[in-house]
Structure formats: structure tokens, C-alpha cells
Amino acid sequence: MKDQLLTEAQKVLNENFQKGGFTIPSKNLYPFQWKWDSGFIAIGYAHYDMNKAESEISTLLDAQWDNGFIPHIIFHTDTDTYFPGADFHKSELHPMSSKKYRSTGLVQPPVLGFVLEKIYHISKDKTRSLEFIGRQIDKVFHNHQYFYQNRDPLNEGLVYIYHNWESGTDNSPVWDGIFETMDSPEYEFERRDTSHVDPEQRPTKREYDHYLHIIEIAKQYNYDDQKIAQHSPFLVQDPLFNAMLIKSNESLIRLYTLLGSNDDKIEKLEKWQKKAVFQMNNKLFDNELNAYIYYDLRNKKPIRSISSSSFTPLFAGIPSKEDARKLIDTLISNFGGDDHYLCASFDPTSEHFKPKKYWRGPVWINLNWILFKGLKRYGFEDIANRVKADSIELITQNGFYEYFDCRKDVISSGNGAYGGNNFSWSAALIIDMLN
Ligand code: 9WN
Fold first, then answer.
1. Which ligand 1 atom minimizes the distance to the CA of 423?
2. I need a surface site. Which of 24, 166, 426, 428 has the fewest CB within 10 A?
3. Residue extents of the structural domains in the chain
């Protein structure tokens, strides 16, 4: 059983691997290289093909901008099966953007620091891996420096995202209130995602208007960070994004220590880290909801919603033991009913929960992997094992889909697997969970 699943997972990854040395998330639906996908994918490869793992990361980092920015999509080819593509995003507007690759002017969760450390741990040839890490690590450090210097206007230690696509959790109900403050035009465009996947499982046309509108504003300012901070209607401190940065800071500190002679960088990372952990608990932990929430910097108010992102600080060791216990209580009471698979992407007790719609409810394997690791870190073995078992069961029964219904009766009926099939990070992270 386990061996068969591993073989199938490897097949998914190998078939999505491209000549350019990177892996697409899913055929047709996502035909380019995505940042956080590449990070998770590299972890999967590291278990059986280190060349591919290294290539995934070095190809991504080759597209880094001169200011340290790493884009969310690298458009390696001209295919038009995805909208919006390179001609819409126009990364060339930014004076420091890559001259070699066209990309978006958006980022995605900063996973690369912990991915490098994971590769090192998995590797059987530590000398080789340390050499590889030595060649890449300064680029990741530069990326963290970009975030702290450009995405933290109040100097709080928490960085902002200026677009829901930067969160990785695109149409979460968390953003609905922000879109209501925006007067987005009704754009005319041809969606491509809805010709690959049932529109019921994807964001609406009106949501896409908002997504495009924020980018049009950023483009007016040539993707200048300071101008974006002043003018973007969307400016949010997101718990998942900041937890990934903190987790990656921690990994960079350990890797620089292993490499030696990088005391200046370690010192900077420790400074960022201390402030960031403090502010995560001080500003983003909601003592009534007992969960990490979001802060809307533009409208100066907390967004008091619970999503699967609310639990990701466990992975980065952010909560105290006591707050971790409270988080688990919230997880179990709101998300953990016996008739549910863990972990829905949005609070199943909320009126905004939609079990089929993308990030409004379905289970995603990458969030489950983050949660599994976080729960283990705090010693919550039983619930960690449940998250792992649920992930494996969902994939075994349905295939390597992009997201899944969290309701057990819907899964048993055979209709609960959604989005793209043969989805790369679902395969990659199952490989890691099985090892
Ligand atoms: C926009 C590639 C990406 C993931 C995101 C997921 C989805 C893209 C889209 O697919 O977003 O970036 O077009 O829907 O939400 O997390 O990285 O797999």
C-alpha cells in the first residue's frame, strides 16, 4: 500500500517536471513555476531524486530580482492556458526585476529557508547538500531582508501582503470585507481556470475583478513597494505568511551556524526573529477566539476570522505551551468533528464556510503538512497522527487532487475531490509524510 502510493506520487512529480528544470503544479491549470509550490515539491524530490530537488530551488532563485524579491509565478514559457499571464502582470515595470525571466510582481509565502533545512536533513550526502545550501542561502537571506526592509512600514516585525494571491489562500472569506471597500471596475477578460475545473470550485468573476484591480493599482506605481504601501486597498498582516517567514528565519540561523563565518547575518536574523515572534503573539493572537487572526493595515482593524492559517504558527514554534493548548481546543471544537476530515481551510462553524469552493472550506494537503509538523513540534501526537492519516486517506481514496471536501459522507460518495488532478504538492508532501 505504502510502496504503491509512493510510486504513484513519484510518477505525478516526474510527469510534471519540465525541461527547464522546474515542476508545474498541475497540467493545463497551472503551466508555470509557482514559488511556494516549488518549495514543497523540492521536499518531495529530496526523498528520491536530489538533482531534481536542487534544480527546483536553483531555477526559482535564478529568477530573483536585484532587490531580493522572489516572484510568485515565473513564466518560463508563452503558453496561454493560464490567465492572467506575463503580458498582464508586466514585471518589467519594476526597475530591479529579472531581465532573464518574466514573472508576476507578487510574492508567495516564504518557505525556502525551511525547505533548504529539510533538504539537508533528508539528504544522505550531507557534504553535497551543504555545498548546495552554501550556494543558495544568501539569496534566501536577501529575500528575508527585502521583506523586513520593504514590507513592514510601521517597523513592527510583521510583514504585509498586498494581494490575496500573495497569501496562497486566494479566495478565503477573510478577504471579503476588504473587497467590499474597493470599487473595482468590471473588467472584460477570458478566464482559463474555469475551462479546466468546474467553476463551482473556483473563485467568482467578481472576485477576479478585485484581484485584477489591485494589480492594476500596483502597476500604476511600477510595483514600487513604498507606493503600494501607500495606495493598495489590500494591505494585510497574514498569520500564515509571517509564520512561514519566522520558521524560515529559524532554519537560516541553524544553517548559517552549520556553514560557519556568517555571524553578521545570524545576528540580523535573530533580531528580526525576536521582534516577529513577540508581535505574532502580541498583535495576531486573539484571546477570545483562541486563534491567530489577521490584521488589516489599510483599514486599521483586525480581521477576526479563523482559517487553517490560524494554526500554522505552531509549525514555527511561536505560541507558548499554554496558547498552543488553546489553539488545539479551537481546532478540535470548530474543525475536528468526527464526521470531518482535518483540516478544513476555513472555519466550518462559520456562515461563510463553503465546502467545495477552493480556499473557503476544502482541505489542502500543504496546510495539513504544516499543521502535522506543528502539532508534532508541540507533542500533540494523537491529533498530529489524525491529520496525517486523514491526508493519506483522502489521497488514497481519490487520487492526488488539489483540494478535498472535508465532509466524510461526501468523500465516501466519491464526489469530494476538487480542482486539478495529479497535483504536485499533494504528491510531494505525501512522500514526505510517508517517510
Ligand atoms: C494563483 C499553484 C497555485 C498555488 C496557490 C493556489 C492557486 C493560483 C490560481 O494555485 O493559486 O496563484 O490561479 O488560482 O491558491 O496557493 O500556489 O498551485
1. 18
2. 166
3. 2-434
